[in-house]
Amino acid sequence: MVRAIVVMLVALMLGAPAIARMAPAAPPSAATADPALAVRANQLVAILGGTGDFDGYFAPSFHAALPKDKWDAVTAQVVAQLGKPLAIDAIQSASAFSALLRVRFERGIGMIQIAIDPLPPHRVTGLLFTGSELAGDSFDKLSADFRALPGTSGFGVYALGGVVPRLVAGLSPDTPAPLGSAFKLWVLGELSREIGVGKRHWVDVVPVGTASLPSGILQAWPAGTPLTVQALATLMISISDNTATDTLVALEGAALDRFVAARGAPGLAPVLTTRQMFAIKSPANADLAARWKGATPAARRALLGSEAGRLAATPVDAALFTGKPVAIDDLEWFASPAQAAAMLDWLRTDGGETARAILAVNPGIDASTRAKFTYLGFKGGSEPGVITLNFLVKRPDGQWLAVVGNWHRADAAVDTLPFVQLMSRALLLAAAAPLR
Questions:
Q1: Global pTM value
Q2: 166-171 β-sheet, strand order
């Protein structure tokens, strides 16, 4: 159900669709660039504009990962937002053969990671659109572009530090929406609460539970492998490991339902494991899905108890979650932007240093946007028809903010690239907005 948002986010949590398969780049350094890197970088303007030699510019591995028709579709989205590509404004080398490019367009700036083959003719092997800055951008323009997404969307930028998060800008901030893997923020919260009161410790060792579907790695590990709860939590947040998540949900038990209610997100209870969610969505359990829809939390808890054996025995196929959306309006984890912001704020104030460090393992955004903040924590979620990105950030002036957004549609998969661009704009606006 939860896939990683391809390298476009440089986010292991969601997987990721990017313009090409390429390892996440380290922040730009003072590395000496090979002269061929500048040549290929400056040729990119023509390639983006559709006048360059696509076949000769990219390596065969790039062609295999992203044929020209798909490349054209992605670049059309970029041009629709930023206008015609004009020039390369800056090349910040990360190594001799890779760099972060600042590309000037008619209506803004695009940040693009590039990697070239060290061997002549130094064709491009990787290219990632990692973020954009729209000239003259504003929260009003951002809201309009969120509204233009097909389906239903919402976002919120919240200033933190008061009694409750204060909305700075947003669209439908109080409307619950499907979360995908972002429900794992609440799982981390309850674990942090238990550790805070001495019930558990980060070094406690527990056996890995029943395997769930990817994302993650633990589904392939031997059953019962001992891991610390900190390792499980880190895998859950940083790469959205579903098996790690389910192990922690089972460990927390009914306390997790009490926690989500106390944190003002009662729509999450009873909190399903990912394995339970997959099983209920399986065509073999259509009758259970029908019973779940519209049932009270108490009735849903009863269903999970009476049908526990059937759900555990249901074989689930990952292919079920790679095509069209499956019951995302009824069978999902739900919370509003306001509730997600409140959860992030709780993790900031009450979660403890370790929880905040876990949130920061995978920044979920490009290095240039990350550099606007002194701290950035992240968790997102996705499945066909659903995407949500949630950031906890601290500005250099000491102001903490939550920047959260969601988009879902029941009729088709969502397009990751424009949504990531919107959330990147939200972060950039939040980094500079006067809030006091």
A1: 0.84
A2: 166-171, 152-159, 400-408, 386-394, 375-383
Say how many Å lie between the first and final Cα of the chain, rounded: 40
Instruction: State mean pLDDT over 122-137.
Output: 87
Helix (H, G, I), strand (E, B) or coil at 254: helix
* pLDDT at residue number 49: 94
- Cα–Cα distance between 9 and 184 in angstroms, integer? 19
C-alpha angle 250-228-256 in degrees, rounded to nearest 5: 30
Q: Grade residue 436 by pLDDT with cuts at 50, 70 and 90.
A: low
Mean pLDDT, residues 157-175 taken together: 97
Q: How far apart are CA 279 and CA 296, in angstroms?
A: 19
d(CA 390, CA 208): 27
Q: Which two tokens stand for residue 139?
A: 């929260």
Tokens of 284: 């073999």
Q: What is d(CA 24, CA 363) in angstroms, rounded to the nearest whole number?
A: 11
CATH number for the domain formed by residue range(s) 138-436: 3.40.710.10
CA distances from 309 to 210, 244, 279, 306 (A): 13, 21, 11, 8
Place 74 in a pLDDT band, splitting at 50, 70 and 90: confident
119: pLDDT strictly greater than 60: yes
Q: Is the pLDDT of residue 26 over 50?
A: no
Residue type, position 282, single letter: S
Rounded CA-CA distance 277/184 in Å is 14
For the chain, the domains span 7-134, 138-436
- Alpha-carbon separation of residue 174 from 153, 154, 178, 342 (angstroms): 12, 9, 13, 12
Contact 216, 243 (CB under 8 A): yes
**Three-state DSSP state, 274:** helix
Cα–Cα distance measured from residue 226 to residue 329, given in angstroms and rounded to the nearest whole number: 36
Q: How many helices (H) and strands (E) would you count in the chain?
A: 17, 13
